[in-house]
Design a protein that fits this description.
Rossmann fold, alpha/beta, 4 strands, 4-stranded parallel beta sheet
Length: 193
């Protein structure tokens, strides 16, 4: 591992220590798994909760894997059941923004119910290089993105994940099932599976 990468990782750990207590939006993918692992190194495990959305547009296996991963780290895992937001039932072009607003508003409320004021998530530095309309919703809701703020790229996260013996280090990228549908097409949950 390069000195620069070591410094970025330490910066991330220092960032997480300053949160004190944190709720992590946890999909079980490469980025959120790495973020959860880093948080478990920086904070006592009872100062962390992992929140996973269970919705018709998220494959069941992803939710199950998230539960196993959080359990292996001894992190409290809460599954938050969600319907498809009514505003995106026709798959509008701004569906990512609408969906992120809906989902992260819900996650903030669940976190608050469990005594956690801060919610963070796994957007990385590379995610800012592509069209990600949902990022605006995160900013508006005050959701922090430590990996992005510490300038960690996807490849760096994979390298650090491998060094930390995380099974997700080489997990393929996962796209929301709604991206399978053309814009302005009614969303039918049965076609998402």
């Amino acid at each position: 591992m390069s000195q620069e990468l070591r410094q970025k990782y330490q910066q991330l750990l220092d960032y997480l220590k300053k949160t004190g207590r944190v709720a992590i939006a946890f999909s079980g993918g490469v980025d959120s798994t790495f973020l959860l692992k880093a948080a478990s190194e920086a904070l006592p495990v009872d100062h962390i909760i992992a929140l996973t959305i269970d919705s018709p547009y998220i494959p069941r296996r992803e939710i199950e894997e998230a539960g196993k991963t959080a359990g292996a780290m001894h992190i409290r895992h809460i599954i938050v059941n969600s319907r498809i937001p009514p505003q995106i039932m026709n798959n509008p072009k701004d569906r990512c923004y609408i969906c992120k607003t809906f989902i992260f508003s819900m996650l903030k409320e669940v976190a608050k119910q469990h005594g956690f004021e801060e919610v963070i998530e796994g957007t990385n530095a590379d995610d800012t290089l592509s069209h990600r309309p949902g990022l605006l919703a995160l900013t508006e809701l005050g959701i922090r993105s430590p990996l992005k703020e510490c300038r960690l790229t996807k490849q760096e996260i994979r390298t650090l994940s491998k060094d930390n013996h995380l099974d997700t280090w080489d997990k393929p990228a996962y796209a929301c099932l709604l991206t399978r549908l053309p814009y302005d097409t009614p969303v039918d949950a049965s076609v998402l599976l």
